[in-house]
Amino acid sequence: MPANLEHIQQIMAEADTLFSTEEVEAAIDRVAEQINQKLFDSNPVVFCVMNGGLIFSGKLLTKLTFPLEQSYLHASRYRNETSGGELFWKAKPEVSFMDREVLIIDDILDEGHTLTAIVDFCKRAGASKVHTAVLMDKQHERKARPDLKADFVGLYCEDRYIFGYGMDYKGYWRNAAGIYAVKGM
Ligand SMILES: O=P(O)(O)OC[C@H]1O[C@H](OP(=O)(O)OP(=O)(O)O)[C@H](O)[C@@H]1O
Ligand code: HPA
């Protein structure tokens, strides 16, 4: 169904700003510094989780100062909706990472089913170690496992539906240069 652009515009007009561009950029700098310290001699394969991980990955990668290979994978659970369902693999990794360290970069750890499935996949495919980096970790009690955490986290946010910096509202506003929460959600 074609998007109702008036509705999409209204979502942005009424949204609450959770983090400004400057705050998000500072968080990306912090994560880059942590990754540079931890993975500098690990020769990792770095995977961007499409689509949401695109902007965080792009910005982060330019701040990583050691040799690495980069690729992408696409697993989707929300399919442009605001609640998650079954995980659907749209593109599995094509490069071999047998006995390699892997860094998975995604926009958000929400319930964590997506990241859990991707990490399991990488381990089954022979990765020697799997590291995870997310721009946002949403704070609530519905994680796939109670102890589920990413190794590198940009910012923590409240339990609301958020968009911007790669995260979408019904397929839109991934391009928004800040982190916003939908009014009433
Ligand atoms: O922690 P979870 O509850 O599993 O949710 C997080 C995942 O959901 C979003 O992807 P989505 O399925 O919307 O696909 P997309 O990136 O293509 O929008 C987001 O990019 C994460 O990959
Ligand atoms: O709050 C969210 N916003 C955008 N995409 C998401 N995927 C999981 N949670 C979210």
Automatic annotation (TrEMBL):
<dbReference type="GO" id="GO:0032263">
    <property type="term" value="P:GMP salvage"/>
</dbReference>
<dbReference type="Pfam" id="PF00156">
    <property type="entry name" value="Pribosyltran"/>
</dbReference>
<dbReference type="GO" id="GO:0046100">
    <property type="term" value="P:hypoxanthine metabolic process"/>
</dbReference>
<dbReference type="InterPro" id="IPR029057">
    <property type="entry name" value="PRTase-like"/>
</dbReference>
<feature type="domain" description="Phosphoribosyltransferase">
    <location>
        <begin position="16"/>
        <end position="169"/>
    </location>
</feature>
<keyword id="KW-0328">Glycosyltransferase</keyword>
<dbReference type="InterPro" id="IPR000836">
    <property type="entry name" value="PRTase_dom"/>
</dbReference>
<dbReference type="InterPro" id="IPR050408">
    <property type="entry name" value="HGPRT"/>
</dbReference>
<dbReference type="GO" id="GO:0004422">
    <property type="term" value="F:hypoxanthine phosphoribosyltransferase activity"/>
</dbReference>
<dbReference type="GO" id="GO:0005829">
    <property type="term" value="C:cytosol"/>
</dbReference>
<keyword id="KW-0808">Transferase</keyword>
<protein>
    <submittedName>
        <fullName>Hypoxanthine-guanine phosphoribosyltransferase</fullName>
        <ecNumber>2.4.2.8</ecNumber>
    </submittedName>
</protein>
<dbReference type="GO" id="GO:0032264">
    <property type="term" value="P:IMP salvage"/>
</dbReference>
<dbReference type="GO" id="GO:0000287">
    <property type="term" value="F:magnesium ion binding"/>
</dbReference>
<dbReference type="GO" id="GO:0006178">
    <property type="term" value="P:guanine salvage"/>
</dbReference>
